[in-house]
């Protein structure tokens, strides 16, 4: 099994409590050694709840602990850049929640700080570590569905009645594009292995929610006439679907970004002509797979499947999507 990576958690956000902390604790190569909050009592309560040995009343205290090897950052979006850089300067490896920051320029600064400090940086797109995506790539590359003509993806949920939710605070990086739009965009880039050239996005900006985009629908133009059409939202029925359209058939994933637990069997549907094939893979916890992959990168030097620059490229698209939604215009994405 080898050594274990000792983690510190910067904050007590819901995603950390319900998903990431339990996953690290269940992983083969990870151990949660400490958790920090600006509220000493909240940190202590979380430490007791999850049987974490150490708690800290500030993020600075956690970063100063020499026993902590890596940090997971689930803070509000506008704090990702600052605390990634401060963690890197403290010599800690960084797994940062998506979106990596509020701009591609901010993400570039984060990655440069990590490289300068000699630490590993990864954006926490947990879904990408599930083996079903490797299988989908195999089907695509086999030519079974022909040439890819387009991708359609949805990711919506409804928590619009949570008035104090940070997702509805514009200055803190709220909005559906930052929160869930990043997923279809990263997935399309992953499957197509190329970058989009332009975007057009229409959004619902809600005065009730600090004028963040509560719903957005978009078109991403990829080279060769291939496109991604997507919608994302925080004020709509729950959906998380993806369809890859080929010249001969389709691949459908009805639970594209689901938080798979070991009891869940993800499904892939391949339609070619009049024949539909259903493929079932063993259930995995994607958060656990992510934790082990990160630990292997830190402890054993095993390369992560996605370079840090992937986060910059994803943010370039998000930057363009937000600009398009606010200007109501098509926006081209520069190569620089």
Please, could you describe this protein's structure?
The protein is α/β, with parallel strands linked by helices. The protein folds into two domains: 5-126 and 290-305, Rossmann fold; 130-284 and 315-332, 2-Layer Sandwich (Dihydrodipicolinate Reductase, domain 2), CATH 3.30.360.10. It is built from nine helices and 15 strands. It has helices at 14-26, 40-50, 59-63, 80-89, 104-117, 131-142, 176-192, 286-300, 309-327; strands spanning 5-10, 30-36, 54-56, 70-73, 93-96, 121-123, 148-158, 198-206, 212-221, 227-233, 235-246, 249-253, 267-272, 275-280, 331-332. Strands 14-13-12-11-7-10-9-8-15 form a nine-stranded mixed β-sheet. A six-stranded parallel β-sheet has the order 3-2-1-4-5-6, with helices on both faces.
Question: What is the compact description of this entry?
Answer:
The protein has 336 residues and is of the alpha/beta class. Helices cover 35% and strands 28% of the residues.
Please tag this protein with its features.
single chain; 336 residues; Rossmann fold; 2 domains; six-stranded parallel beta sheet; 35% helix; oxidoreductase activity
